[in-house]
From TrEMBL:
The chain crosses the membrane at residues 116-135, 141-163, 175-195, 215-237, 244-266, 278-298. Keywords: Membrane, Transmembrane, Transmembrane helix. InterPro entries: DUF389. It comes from the Bacteria. Pfam families: DUF389. This is Uncharacterized hydrophobic domain-containing protein.
Amino acid sequence: MLHLRAVCPPDKTAEALEVLRAHAGTAHLVVHRGAAVAPEGDLVEADIAREAADEIVGALCGLELDHTGGITLESLDTALSDAADAAEEAAPGEGADAVVWEELVARTGEESRLNVTYLAFLTIACLLAAAGVLTDSAVTIVGAMVVGPEFGPLAALAVGLVLRRRDLAGQAAAALAVGFPLAMVVTLGGALLVRVTDVFGEQAFELKQHSDVDFVFSVGVPSLVVAMLAGAAGMLAMTSAKSAALVGVFISVTTVPAAGYAVVAAVKGEWSRCLQSVGQLLVNLLGIVAAAAIVLIVRRNGQRSPMGTRPLSRG
């Protein structure tokens, strides 16, 4: 179940109530007359089945409440109510299969912003990946995969392409185009410092002896297959209630490790491995976006066309 709150101008409240009353997936409808202060109006609350959310939110946006008032959604972990159970039973489909498109746009938009936090996580992930390469530690490489925040922009890019949201796609592309080069430059500085100070020893840069991390730069068809499977799983997780599966996606693909390996190989002068690592990075990025976009297209079949017109919020 989801908890919906809508701030309505007084002249729109009756229509909003009619939308909510008319849908079988609605329960616990409450109206607070004159409770909203900024913007002024009435506050309407209801618990709605997840599988009904897209249709209800679309109808409320049709009343322009997203412009004249406001609409928010919150996930409910527990709802002890016969009315809530009846609403979930009456709503068509299964909650885990439902896609709330406006929620998806908002979520991917938030996770694809180019900000200090995103850059910090991506840089730390690349540094961890480089450390894993230098120490021939697959465990450290996996740690870098988990820390890396790059799936957010990749998912946003897929959503932007499928929904034809140029603002979202542009924001995601900027995060990737700026984030990876910046993280790799910082990692390059770190790798050079390590080599000059000989912290890990000269043998750390003998990459041909590091068999445990060879998978990072070995680009090929298997890499593309893994990337596409991970992208499909990641988008399924983001469009359903199975968000815990995203952790599995993070440790499936070698985007960040490939960037870290490319930097270390460049410091050593192993240009063949450096280029292979860059190829691995590109293959994974393209594979994830392509598979995620395919999943979105498939999931959109059978549902109403998502609105996808609301500009990204900076709030």
